[in-house]
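Re-running the complex after MR caught last week's input typo. The corrected sequence lines follow. Everything else is unchanged.
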Amino acid sequence: MSARALDDARTRSLDDAVREANVLVTTGAGGVGKTTAAAALGVAAARAGRRTLVLTIDPARRLAQAMGLDGLTDEPHRVDLDADASGQEATGELWAMMLDMQTTFDRLIDRHATSPQNAAAIKSNRIYRTLSSTLSGTQEYMAMERLHELHDTGEWDLLVVDTPPTRSALDFLDAPNRMTSFLEGRLLRLLLKPGVAAGRGVGRMVGASATAFMRVAGRVTGMELLQDLADFFRDFEGMYEGFKERADEVLALLRDPDSRFVVVTSPEPPPLREARFFLERLEQEGLHAAGVVVNRVQPEMPRDPSAASLRRAAEKLDDGDDPAEPATASALRLLSDVRNLATRQRRDVAAALYSVEPSVLVEVPLLGRDVHDVDGLEEIATTLTTTR
Ligand SMILES: Nc1ncnc2c1ncn2[C@@H]1O[C@H](COP(=O)(O)OP(=O)(O)OP(=O)(O)O)[C@@H](O)[C@H]1O
Ligand SMILES: [Mg+2]
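Corrected-run output:
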C-alpha cells in the first residue's frame, strides 16, 4: 500500500461500519484488544441508535463486571449507558453476553440429533464431553454457531462478535471446516491408527486433535474408552450432514456484505504481520474487511524538537555541574525515546500494511490505564468512530 493510500485510510473511521453492518467480527493476534474493541464498537453502535448485542469471549474480569457479565450467562443482558459527555442519551440499546461453549454445542446436538434419546446419549458420552471442550477450533466454531442462532432471531440490528485468543487469528476462519472434518470422523479414525496418521503427515490439525484425544484417553480407561468411542461414532452417524449444512450457512452469513471483519493489532511487527495475513486471507475468501484498528499506539508528537536534538540537549546538561540537571537530562532522554517509539511504530505499521489496502485505519492511543469500565469503552468508541 502506498504512503498516500495509508494516509487516506487514516482519514476514515469505523463509523460507517457501526451504522451499516449487521455483523462485526473483531479478530487479531492474542492480547491486542479484540474484546475491548468489540465492546467499544457495541457502545458506539448503541449511541448511533442501533439495538446491539456484543458476544464476548473470556473478557477480562473487571470488564465483564462492568458489563454485568460476571456470572457466566449464555443469554443477552442489557448494559446501562449513561448520557455521554455532552449529555446525550444513547438512542439505541447495548446488550452483552458471554459465550458458553458447552451450552452452545449441546444445543447444536439437540438440533441435529435423530431423536431426544440420541441427543441425550451423545451429551452424556465422555468422549463427546471432553472433545467438545478441548478440540482445537471448537471455541471459534461455537462463537460462529451462536452468531448464526442470534442472527436467525432477527432481534438485533447489529451483532458484534469477539473471537477467542487463538494462537493464530487465521485458525478462526478454518474452524468451520475443521469442525466438519472432525465430525465426519476422518480424523478420529486416522487417530485410531497412529502409524497411518504419522506416515501421511496430516499436519497440525491432527497434532492438535491427537493431544485432545490423548487427554481423553488419559481420563477414561481401557474398555470404557472403547465402548464410549464405539457409541460416539454410532450416535453421531446421520448427524454429519446437518452439521455440514450448518457450517456452510455460517460461512454464507460471514460472506454477506453486511458482515464485516475488524482486524485489531498492536503496533508491533508480529501482530502486524498477522493482521496483514488476515486481510489477505479475507480477500481470498470473499469476506469483507471493515478496517484495521491499531491499538495502544504511542500518540504522535509535534515534529520539533526532534528526538536527536533532545538527546543532544541531554548530553550538554550531563556535562554541567548543576545538581538539578541530571534529572532534566533524564527527562529529555525519555522524551527522545518516546518520540523514537512513536516514529518506529508508524514505520512498522506502514511497512506491514504495504501490500494490503485497508480502506480504514484507526489508531487508538495507549491509555494510561486498563479499559475495564464503560467510561473507558466510551473513550475508545469515540476514537473508533471519529474521522481525523
Ligand atoms: N488502548 C488501550 N490502552 C490501554 N489498555 C488497553 C487498550 N486496549 C486494551 N487495553 C487493555 O489490554 C488488555 C488486553 O485487551 P483485550 O482483553 O481486549 O485483548 P484481547 O485481544 O481480547 O485478548 P485475548 O487475545 O486474550 O482475548 C486489557 O487489560 C485491556 O483493558
Ligand atoms: Mg479477548
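None of the earlier attempt is carried over here. The radius of gyration is 25 Å. Residues 187 and 206 are 7 Å apart (CA to CA).
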